[in-house]
Amino acid sequence: MDHHTHAQPADHDLPRVLDLDAEVFGAGLASALDLSGLISARVVVDLGAGTGTGSRLLRDRFPEATITAVDNDPRMLQRLRDEGFTAVAADLDEGFPELSSGRIDLVWASSSLHHVADPGQLLSDARKALATGGTLVVVELASLPSFLSEPRQALLEQRCHAAADAEGWNRHRDWTTTLEDAGFVVTKTQLRTTAPVTLAAWENARQWLRRFQHLETLAGVDRAALEDLVTAPAADLELEPQAHRTVWVCTASR
């Protein structure tokens, strides 16, 4: 799924938003996969694959593996199939999909677990589906990505983040206990990614600023300042793109 926020306003161009997040902060996902310690894998499942950010990363890392991308959005599924992935339509609220149970070497769940109604059951099912010695990697944004570095603009962005937090954006629990209850041994790590200032970073920053305009609790003066930033020339935005992620690397306890 790879949706980076929870309870956000609907995005009519969600695939583009997700692609920008991946292009700007993709190095952080690669670092998250590094934490798994896996050198090889034969069967890999991307739970909530979205536009395929994780699936492409997994294919690049494990070119000999069979990679199955799971999602419930027909647009995303068609795109995944167009890129050559085995795409499976499944509602994760109904549990782990029927795949190669007991043979999966790696399950990857990036920014998808917090969308699931019963994550405990899904994780328990995932553990049973893993091969002996298999690994589950869960990734969530620890906070919304930040972009602005000029002090006044950065303070405005922080107030937008506070309002977004209050409205439930990116709301998820610390999955450690849930993972342990599902039968996993868990290592939790915090990662920070500082991205270069590129054209994609400029566009990504504007996309997030436009999203913040939908915040209901944002103060009027901040809403006006946000409108000025959204419509300002790119040269008026001083950027230092950063993303903070939490990564849980999990192995089944036997």
TrEMBL record:
<feature type="domain" description="Methyltransferase type 11">
    <location>
        <begin position="45"/>
        <end position="138"/>
    </location>
</feature>
<keyword id="KW-0808">Transferase</keyword>
<dbReference type="GO" id="GO:0008168">
    <property type="term" value="F:methyltransferase activity"/>
</dbReference>
<dbReference type="InterPro" id="IPR029063">
    <property type="entry name" value="SAM-dependent_MTases_sf"/>
</dbReference>
<keyword id="KW-0489">Methyltransferase</keyword>
<dbReference type="InterPro" id="IPR013216">
    <property type="entry name" value="Methyltransf_11"/>
</dbReference>
<dbReference type="Pfam" id="PF08241">
    <property type="entry name" value="Methyltransf_11"/>
</dbReference>
<dbReference type="GO" id="GO:0032259">
    <property type="term" value="P:methylation"/>
</dbReference>
<protein>
    <submittedName>
        <fullName>SAM-dependent methyltransferase</fullName>
    </submittedName>
</protein>
